[in-house]
Amino acid sequence: MKPLDIERESFAIIKAELGDRTIDPEYDLLVRRVIHTTADFDYVDNLCFSEHAVLRMKEAIRKGCDVITDTTMAQSGINKKILARFGGEARCFIADPDVAAEAKERGVTRSLVSMEKAARLQKPLIFAVGNAPTALFSICDLIRAGKLSPEMVIGVPVGFVNVVEAKEELMKTAPHYIVARGRKGGSNVAAAIVNAVLYQLIEREE
Fold first, then answer.
1. I need a surface site. Which of 65, 73, 78, 178 has the fewest CB within 10 A?
2. How does strand 177-180 pair with strand 47-49?
3. Any idea which fold 45-205 has?
4. CA distance 196 to 204
């Protein structure tokens, strides 16, 4: 089967297995994209959205928003060609030498420092965090300090230590968010959420 045929059949299976379960139309395609990426139907209930999160994210991307990730895996998974059509770039600072040096000197994680570095960029930003809860805590601290006003924060780190707490803190602090509550998530989920919105923008154009 060709890739497009596989994807088409996968979404048909997802639709069939969802049955009569209803999803808010604004978020429907995004949720289905995450299920397609993970084969996990729990995301129907796990994904939480601030008011009109997808509509806001579309507007941010149209304005040329950059997407900041906490891992190179999430950065790699984002469709950079589509993002570039709107003037945006997928960026990750986790492997930058200055980030590593500062994290070592301060005794904190590179994820925390990389979010601080991103906050100094002079353009609108979307954050897509799929791995590090310390990245979410850093974003929350920056928001509270008035040093960051993100267009959207995608908070979907996966794991066991401080993951649930970081997501709950984000929902209390960030005015605009998409969060997978609980332990589930991952860099692939973060990228899938960004791509779901990008694909909707392209479909509208075409």
1. 73
2. antiparallel
3. Rossmann fold (3.40.50)
4. 13
**What is the C-alpha to C-alpha distance for residues 161 and 45, in angstroms, rounded to an integer?**
22
Residue 133 is encoded by which pair of tokens? 């809860």
Query: What torsion do the CA atoms of 187, 82, 204, 200 make, to the nearest 10 degrees?
Result: 0
- How many Cβ atoms are within 10 Å of 72's Cβ, its own excluded? 13
Beta strands in the chain (DSSP E): 47-49, 66-69, 90-92, 125-129, 152-155, 177-180
Q: What is the pLDDT of residues 107-127, one digit of tens each?
A: 999 999 999 999 999 999 999
Domain ranges of the chain: 45-205
If you ran DSSP here, which 8-state letter would residue 175 be given? Answer: S
Per the listing, tokens 């129907």 go with: 44
Which tokens hold the place of 85? Answer: 């059509």
Does the pLDDT value for residue 206 go beyond 50? no
- Active-site residue among 36, 85, 91, 181? 36
Q: Would you say 158 and 130 are in contact if contact means Cβ atoms under 8 Å apart?
A: yes
pLDDT over 90 at 205, yes or no: no
**What gap in Å lies between CA 156 and CA 166, rounded to an integer?**
10
pLDDT of residue 72: 97
pTM of the model: 0.95
178, two tokens: 């998409």
52 is catalytic: no
18 within 8 A of 41, measured Cβ to Cβ: yes
Give percent above pLDDT 90 in the chain.
93
